Protein backbone atom coordinates (compact mmCIF):
# COMPACT_ATOMS: atom_id res chain seq x y z
CA UNK A 1 0.00 0.00 0.00
CA UNK A 2 1.33 3.41 -1.01
CA UNK A 3 0.64 6.63 0.80
CA UNK A 4 0.67 10.00 -0.95
CA UNK A 5 3.00 12.73 0.34
CA UNK A 6 1.88 16.30 0.53
CA UNK A 7 3.49 18.59 -2.11
CA UNK A 8 5.86 20.37 0.34
CA UNK A 9 7.01 17.06 1.79
CA UNK A 10 7.47 15.59 -1.68
CA UNK A 11 9.60 18.55 -2.76
CA UNK A 12 11.67 18.25 0.40
CA UNK A 13 12.22 14.53 -0.10
CA UNK A 14 13.21 15.02 -3.76
CA UNK A 15 15.53 17.87 -2.89
CA UNK A 16 17.54 15.86 -0.40
CA UNK A 17 19.45 13.81 -3.02
CA UNK A 18 20.12 16.98 -5.04
CA UNK A 19 21.51 18.77 -1.98
CA UNK A 20 23.62 15.74 -1.17
CA UNK A 21 25.01 15.66 -4.71
CA UNK A 22 25.84 19.38 -4.63
CA UNK A 23 27.51 19.03 -1.24
CA UNK A 24 29.53 16.09 -2.53
CA UNK A 25 30.59 18.02 -5.63
CA UNK A 26 31.60 21.08 -3.59
CA UNK A 27 33.62 19.26 -0.97
CA UNK A 28 34.85 16.15 -2.77
CA UNK A 29 38.51 16.18 -3.82
CA UNK A 30 39.05 16.82 -7.53
CA UNK A 31 42.02 15.78 -9.73
CA UNK A 32 43.37 19.32 -10.02
CA UNK A 33 46.21 21.41 -8.64
CA UNK A 34 46.04 25.11 -7.84
CA UNK A 35 48.98 27.05 -9.24
CA UNK A 36 50.32 30.58 -8.87
CA UNK A 37 53.41 32.59 -9.87
CA UNK A 38 56.47 31.15 -8.16
CA UNK A 39 60.00 32.25 -7.46
CA UNK A 40 62.43 33.49 -10.09
CA UNK A 41 66.20 33.22 -9.88
CA UNK A 42 68.99 35.01 -11.69
CA UNK A 43 71.13 32.23 -13.13
CA UNK A 44 74.01 34.70 -13.56
CA UNK A 45 74.10 35.35 -9.81
CA UNK A 46 73.71 33.56 -6.49
CA UNK A 47 70.80 31.61 -5.10
CA UNK A 48 70.74 31.32 -1.30
CA UNK A 49 74.37 32.37 -1.15
CA UNK A 50 75.62 29.87 -3.73
CA UNK A 51 76.46 30.71 -7.37
CA UNK A 52 73.91 29.13 -9.71
CA UNK A 53 76.58 28.60 -12.38
CA UNK A 54 80.17 27.66 -11.56
CA UNK A 55 82.64 27.08 -14.40
CA UNK A 56 86.19 25.77 -14.37
CA UNK A 57 88.60 24.94 -17.18
CA UNK A 58 87.90 28.11 -19.17
CA UNK A 59 88.03 31.86 -18.49
CA UNK A 60 84.73 33.45 -17.52
CA UNK A 61 83.37 36.97 -17.91
CA UNK A 62 81.90 39.44 -15.45
CA UNK A 63 78.33 39.97 -16.53
CA UNK A 64 75.78 42.72 -16.17
CA UNK A 65 72.03 42.37 -16.33
CA UNK A 66 70.08 39.31 -15.26
CA UNK A 67 68.80 36.08 -16.76
CA UNK A 68 65.94 34.97 -14.54
CA UNK A 69 64.49 31.49 -14.73
CA UNK A 70 60.84 31.37 -13.71
CA UNK A 71 58.66 28.89 -11.85
CA UNK A 72 55.12 28.26 -10.76
CA UNK A 73 54.07 27.12 -7.30
CA UNK A 74 51.52 24.35 -7.07
CA UNK A 75 49.57 22.77 -4.25
CA UNK A 76 51.14 19.55 -2.99
CA UNK A 77 50.17 16.43 -4.96
CA UNK A 78 48.20 15.12 -1.97
CA UNK A 79 46.34 18.40 -1.31
CA UNK A 80 42.54 18.13 -1.55
CA UNK A 81 41.18 20.55 -4.14
CA UNK A 82 37.42 21.06 -4.05
CA UNK A 83 34.94 22.54 -6.49
CA UNK A 84 34.85 25.68 -4.35
CA UNK A 85 38.61 26.05 -4.76
CA UNK A 86 38.29 25.63 -8.52
CA UNK A 87 35.51 28.22 -8.79
CA UNK A 88 37.47 30.70 -6.67
CA UNK A 89 40.56 30.31 -8.86
CA UNK A 90 38.52 30.68 -12.04
CA UNK A 91 37.92 34.35 -11.26
CA UNK A 92 41.53 35.17 -10.29
CA UNK A 93 44.32 36.21 -12.65
CA UNK A 94 47.07 35.35 -10.16
CA UNK A 95 46.00 31.73 -9.79
CA UNK A 96 45.15 28.94 -12.19
CA UNK A 97 43.72 25.45 -12.06
CA UNK A 98 45.65 22.75 -13.87
CA UNK A 99 45.01 19.00 -14.16
CA UNK A 100 47.09 17.34 -11.48
CA UNK A 101 48.59 15.00 -14.08
CA UNK A 102 49.86 18.07 -15.97
CA UNK A 103 51.75 19.21 -12.87
CA UNK A 104 52.75 15.89 -11.29
CA UNK A 105 53.33 12.42 -12.73
CA UNK A 106 50.21 10.33 -12.17
CA UNK A 107 50.10 7.26 -9.99
CA UNK A 108 53.10 8.16 -7.86
CA UNK A 109 53.62 8.94 -4.20
CA UNK A 110 54.79 12.34 -2.99
CA UNK A 111 58.29 10.95 -2.43
CA UNK A 112 58.38 9.45 -5.93
CA UNK A 113 57.19 12.72 -7.45
CA UNK A 114 59.93 14.65 -5.63
CA UNK A 115 62.50 12.19 -6.90
CA UNK A 116 61.11 12.47 -10.44
CA UNK A 117 61.35 16.29 -10.38
CA UNK A 118 64.89 16.16 -9.02
CA UNK A 119 65.93 13.76 -11.78
CA UNK A 120 64.24 15.96 -14.40
CA UNK A 121 66.19 18.97 -13.13
CA UNK A 122 69.47 17.03 -13.23
CA UNK A 123 68.81 15.89 -16.79
CA UNK A 124 67.88 19.45 -17.76
CA UNK A 125 71.12 20.78 -16.31
CA UNK A 126 73.18 18.17 -18.16
CA UNK A 127 71.41 18.98 -21.44
CA UNK A 128 71.88 22.72 -20.86
CA UNK A 129 75.60 22.26 -20.30
CA UNK A 130 76.01 20.13 -23.41
CA UNK A 131 73.98 22.54 -25.54
CA UNK A 132 75.96 25.57 -24.34
CA UNK A 133 79.38 24.00 -24.85
CA UNK A 134 78.36 22.67 -28.25
CA UNK A 135 77.17 26.15 -29.27
CA UNK A 136 80.48 27.66 -28.11
CA UNK A 137 82.49 24.82 -29.69
CA UNK A 138 84.12 23.95 -26.36
CA UNK A 139 85.02 20.49 -25.12
CA UNK A 140 83.08 19.09 -22.19
CA UNK A 141 86.24 17.17 -21.30
CA UNK A 142 88.08 20.41 -20.58
CA UNK A 143 85.32 22.69 -19.31
CA UNK A 144 83.39 21.72 -16.18
CA UNK A 145 80.09 23.38 -15.43
CA UNK A 146 78.24 22.99 -12.12
CA UNK A 147 74.65 24.17 -11.79
CA UNK A 148 72.95 24.56 -8.41
CA UNK A 149 69.45 25.82 -7.75
CA UNK A 150 67.87 24.90 -4.43
CA UNK A 151 64.23 23.80 -4.07
CA UNK A 152 63.44 23.83 -7.79
CA UNK A 153 62.58 20.73 -9.80
CA UNK A 154 61.62 19.89 -13.34
CA UNK A 155 63.16 20.68 -16.74
CA UNK A 156 61.76 24.13 -17.51
CA UNK A 157 64.89 26.12 -16.57
CA UNK A 158 66.95 24.46 -19.29
CA UNK A 159 66.96 27.37 -21.75
CA UNK A 160 67.94 29.93 -19.12
CA UNK A 161 70.72 27.70 -17.76
CA UNK A 162 72.12 27.40 -21.27
CA UNK A 163 72.01 31.13 -21.92
CA UNK A 164 73.65 31.78 -18.56
CA UNK A 165 76.56 29.48 -19.38
CA UNK A 166 77.01 31.14 -22.77
CA UNK A 167 76.90 34.62 -21.26
CA UNK A 168 79.53 33.74 -18.66
CA UNK A 169 81.85 32.15 -21.22
CA UNK A 170 81.34 34.12 -24.42
CA UNK A 171 78.74 36.83 -23.94
CA UNK A 172 77.33 38.12 -27.20
CA UNK A 173 80.50 37.17 -29.05
CA UNK A 174 81.63 40.78 -29.37
CA UNK A 175 82.60 41.57 -25.79
CA UNK A 176 79.11 42.49 -24.61
CA UNK A 177 76.47 40.79 -22.50
CA UNK A 178 73.64 38.71 -23.90
CA UNK A 179 71.29 40.67 -21.67
CA UNK A 180 72.41 44.09 -22.86
CA UNK A 181 72.22 45.06 -19.18
CA UNK A 182 68.50 44.25 -19.03
CA UNK A 183 66.63 41.88 -16.76
CA UNK A 184 65.62 39.06 -19.07
CA UNK A 185 63.36 36.24 -17.91
CA UNK A 186 62.07 33.18 -19.63
CA UNK A 187 61.25 29.51 -19.63
CA UNK A 188 61.65 26.48 -21.85
CA UNK A 189 63.19 23.04 -21.88
CA UNK A 190 66.28 22.38 -23.95
CA UNK A 191 68.00 19.32 -25.36
CA UNK A 192 71.66 18.78 -26.12
CA UNK A 193 71.12 19.89 -29.73
CA UNK A 194 69.68 23.23 -28.62
CA UNK A 195 66.02 22.63 -29.42
CA UNK A 196 63.64 24.49 -27.10
CA UNK A 197 60.47 22.81 -25.85
CA UNK A 198 57.21 23.93 -24.27
CA UNK A 199 56.72 23.79 -20.51
CA UNK A 200 53.24 24.95 -19.43
CA UNK A 201 52.17 27.57 -16.91
CA UNK A 202 53.65 30.42 -18.93
CA UNK A 203 50.87 32.91 -18.11
CA UNK A 204 51.77 32.61 -14.43
CA UNK A 205 55.51 32.71 -15.16
CA UNK A 206 55.18 36.02 -17.00
CA UNK A 207 53.57 37.48 -13.89
CA UNK A 208 56.44 36.21 -11.73
CA UNK A 209 58.95 37.66 -14.21
CA UNK A 210 57.40 41.12 -14.26
CA UNK A 211 57.02 41.11 -10.48
CA UNK A 212 60.78 40.57 -10.19
CA UNK A 213 61.75 43.31 -12.61
CA UNK A 214 61.98 41.62 -16.01
CA UNK A 215 61.14 43.64 -19.11
CA UNK A 216 61.70 40.83 -21.63
CA UNK A 217 60.41 37.27 -21.53
CA UNK A 218 61.67 34.39 -23.70
CA UNK A 219 58.86 31.94 -24.38
CA UNK A 220 58.72 28.73 -26.44
CA UNK A 221 57.05 29.76 -29.68
CA UNK A 222 54.32 27.12 -29.31
CA UNK A 223 53.15 28.85 -26.11
CA UNK A 224 52.92 32.41 -27.41
CA UNK A 225 49.14 32.52 -27.20
CA UNK A 226 49.15 31.28 -23.60
CA UNK A 227 51.79 33.84 -22.64
CA UNK A 228 49.78 36.67 -24.20
CA UNK A 229 46.59 35.69 -22.35
CA UNK A 230 47.46 37.51 -19.10
CA UNK A 231 50.57 39.41 -20.21
CA UNK A 232 51.62 41.99 -17.60
CA UNK A 233 52.10 45.55 -18.78
CA UNK A 234 55.71 46.39 -19.58
CA UNK A 235 56.79 42.85 -20.45
CA UNK A 236 57.93 42.10 -24.01
CA UNK A 237 57.54 38.57 -25.36
CA UNK A 238 60.17 37.01 -27.62
CA UNK A 239 59.32 33.60 -29.09
CA UNK A 240 62.12 31.03 -29.41
CA UNK A 241 62.39 27.61 -31.00
CA UNK A 242 66.11 26.92 -30.68
CA UNK A 243 69.10 28.11 -28.68
CA UNK A 244 70.44 29.80 -31.80
CA UNK A 245 67.23 31.79 -32.26
CA UNK A 246 67.27 32.82 -28.59
CA UNK A 247 70.88 34.08 -28.78
CA UNK A 248 70.21 35.86 -32.08
CA UNK A 249 67.17 37.62 -30.63
CA UNK A 250 69.03 38.72 -27.51
CA UNK A 251 72.04 40.03 -29.43
CA UNK A 252 69.77 41.91 -31.82
CA UNK A 253 67.87 43.38 -28.89
CA UNK A 254 71.06 44.40 -27.09
CA UNK A 255 72.69 45.97 -30.14
CA UNK A 256 69.58 47.53 -31.59
CA UNK A 257 70.50 45.98 -34.93
CA UNK A 258 68.50 43.33 -36.70
CA UNK A 259 64.95 42.15 -36.20
CA UNK A 260 63.60 40.76 -32.95
CA UNK A 261 60.63 38.40 -33.34
CA UNK A 262 57.45 38.93 -31.35
CA UNK A 263 54.50 36.77 -30.39
First and last CA, distance: 72 Å
Average the pLDDT over all residues and give the rounded result.
85
DSSP strand count:
12
- Total helical elements: 8
Rg, rounded, reads 24 Å
How does the overall form come out from the CA principal axes? Answer: globular
The main sheet orders its strands as 6-1-5-8-11-12
Q: What is the count of distinct domains? A: 1
What would you say this structure looks like, in words?
By secondary structure, the protein is of the alpha/beta class. It has one domain: Ribosomal Protein S5, domain 2 (2-Layer Sandwich), CATH 3.30.230.10. It contains eight helices and twelve strands. Strand 11 (216-220), helix 7 (224-229) and strand 12 form a beta-alpha-beta unit. Helix 4 packs parallel to helix 5. The radius of gyration is 24 Å and the shape is globular. 36% of the residues are buried. Mean pLDDT is 85; it is low at 1-7 and 10-28.
Secondary-structure blueprint:
Layout: H1 7-27, E1 32-42, E2 46-47, E3 50-51, E4 53-56, E5 66-74, H2 83-90, E6 96-99, H3 100-103, H4 110-136, E7 144-147, H5 158-169, E8 183-186, E9 189-190, E10 196-197, H6 202-211, E11 216-220, H7 224-229, E12 236-240, H8 243-255
Parallel strand pairs: 5-8, 8-11, 11-12
Antiparallel strand pairs: 1-5, 1-6, 2-3, 4-7, 9-10
Helix pairs in contact: 4-5
Amino acid sequence: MLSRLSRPRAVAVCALPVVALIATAVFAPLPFSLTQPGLTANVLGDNRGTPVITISGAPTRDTEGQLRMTTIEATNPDTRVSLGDVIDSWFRTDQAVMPRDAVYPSGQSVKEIEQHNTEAMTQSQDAATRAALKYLKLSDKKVKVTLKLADVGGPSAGLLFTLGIIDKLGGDGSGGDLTGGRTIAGTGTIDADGDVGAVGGVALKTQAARRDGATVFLVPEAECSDAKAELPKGLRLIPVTTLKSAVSSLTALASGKGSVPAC
